[in-house]
Each structure stands twice: as C-alpha cells, then as structure tokens.
Design a protein that fits this description.
11 strands; six-stranded parallel beta sheet; Rossmann fold; three-stranded antiparallel beta sheet; about 290 residues; SIR2/SIRT2 'Small Domain'; 10 helices; alpha/beta; single chain
Length: about 290
C-alpha cells in the first residue's frame, strides 16, 4: 500500500504518540547552504566526496581530506539553522510538544555533523541542554592521531595553510604534513573528529533503546542508505510503530513509510507538524 500524504491523518497519529524519534540526514541542512554530497551534488573538486570520508582516504592523502573538511567547516561556520531545524527543535520543548502530542516525549538522532540542530535547540530553549544524539560526531571536533586527544576547535581557518583553499575549484593542493592541523599537546597530526565510513557511530546503545520504544519515527532529509541509521525506520515499523518520511524526493526509506511528505524539509516539517503559524515563523523567529 502506498504511503499517505494526508496531513490531518498524520496529525491524528502524532497526537496519540507517546514516544517520537526523528532520524535526520543531510537534506535537513540543505536549505542552510550545507552540501549534501550525494547524487548529482556528490563531487568535490572532481573527487567523489563520499570516498574522502574514510580512514583509508586520510591515510593515503591527509592533505586532500583536510582541504575537503576545511571546506565543510567554513560552510558550516557561516550557516544558520533553517525552519526545518527549528521545527524539530520545538518538539524538544515540552510547552510546544504537548500542543500537538500531549503524552509524547521526543528524541532527535541526527546524522549531520554541522552542529545546526544543536544551535536550533539552544534557540528554541536557551535554558535547557539540547536533547539529541549526533550519531556521526561533530565537524568542529579534532582527534590527535598520535595521543588521541579530542578537542573542539572552531578556528577559521583551523591552520594557516588551509586559508583560502575553500574558494578553489581545481584539484586539491599538496600541503605538507607539517603544515596541516597539529595537536597542541604532542604536535601529532590531527584528523577531523567525525565518524567516517568503516567506523562505529556514537551512542548506538542509547539510540537502540529509543528506537525500540518509539511508536512514531520521523525520517527527515535522508536517503536511508547509511546504516545503522537507515535501519531505524524498519525497526519502528516492525514493532508496530508509524513511520513518516519527509524528503525532497523518493528514497529507499519510502519502503517502510506509512506517510510520505515530499518537498523541502524546511517547508514540509513546520507545516505538517505545527501548521502555518510556525511555517511563517510566528512561533519561533528565524533570526
């Protein structure tokens, strides 16, 4: 049976929900100017961007990988949360959540590393600690490949040699290892502190419990191809929960969907969840 796009029917299910989990992907941040690096937009300077997000790629060419992540850092530093981020952030605020789902609790699991969901949560409720799981880590974390020290670094640029490389359109430069980001403790080579392919995502045990308990899953802006996140919708559907997909186009996640809302997440999420008031930013200003 094809998934429904009936907003009122979805809101009826939402209102009866007790445990809501949202699984967010790159499509959520697209309207904030963060490249998705999948499909037609998957190239960075003629390189398959996804192939750069691996431990082997960093081992083979740390200069190229650091230029790719410097580009991403600079994009994220200049980005702000969009209406989709803010709609999900409102679900974390009990005063707003109880209006649309009086008995529910909400958890966000984001595959994004740009930190925009955290910013949105802090904007929605400055006095509360953000309640979300960044399953693939954080773009502004670094890890020393020598001593293992992990730190958050929002310097722009993170090291002088990378300055301006974000504007280049040709092939990556050959930057000396000694000029790449180094550890302040031991001078070892730093790597981006994100979870790469072939590495274990964060918070899997905690997220597993949330998914097991969820009776409603919101699948937002994800192609549903990267596991384990890609399997969460199936797990919720398997134990009798409802799955609603919000995406710009059809994806593999549609197979498990009871509801499907196609269109930009920054428009569909606020409208479907809260109605036109939030879609027009009257409940939570965007700036």
């Amino acid at each position: 049976m094809a998934p429904s796009n009936d907003v009122e029917q979805f809101r009826s299910v939402l209102r009866k929900s007790r445990s809501i989990v949202a699984i967010a992907g790159a499509g959520l941040s697209a309207a904030s100017g963060i490249p998705t690096f999948r499909g037609a937009g998957g190239l960075w300077r003629s390189h398959d961007a996804m192939s750069l997000a691996t431990p082997q790629a960093f081992l083979d060419n740390p200069s190229r990988v650091w230029q790719f992540y410097h580009y991403r850092r600079e994009k994220a530093l200049r980005a702000t949360p969009n209406a989709g981020h803010l709609a999900l952030a409102l679900l974390s605020v009990p005063e707003h959540l109880k209006v649309i789902a009086p008995e529910a609790r909400f958890t966000l699991v984001t595959q994004n590393v740009d930190g925009l969901s955290v910013q949105a949560f802090r904007k929605a409720s400055p006095s509360r600690e953000p309640q979300l799981f960044e399953i693939h880590g954080h773009l502004f974390d670094t890890i020393c490949t020598n001593c293992g020290d992990r730190k958050t670094n929002v310097d722009s640029p993170i090291c002088p040699a990378l300055a301006g490389t974000e504007e280049m359109v040709g092939n990556a430069l050959e930057i000396s290892l000694t000029d790449l980001p180094r550890c302040h403790k031991c001078a070892g080579l730093l790597r981006p502190g994100v979870v790469w392919f072939d590495e274990i995502p964060h918070h899997l045990a905690e997220i597993g419990k949330v998914v097991d308990d969820a009776d409603l899953a919101l699948i937002v802006g994800t192609s549903s191809t990267v596991y384990p996140a890609a399997g969460y919708a199936y797990e919720v559907a398997e134990h009798g929960g409802t799955v609603a997909v919000f995406n710009i186009q059809h994806s593999e996640g549609d197979e498990d969907a009871h509801f499907l809302f196609l269109g930009p997440c920054e428009k569909t999420l606020p409208y479907v969840l809260f109605g036109t008031d939030v879609a027009e930013s009257k409940v939570l200003p965007l700036n």
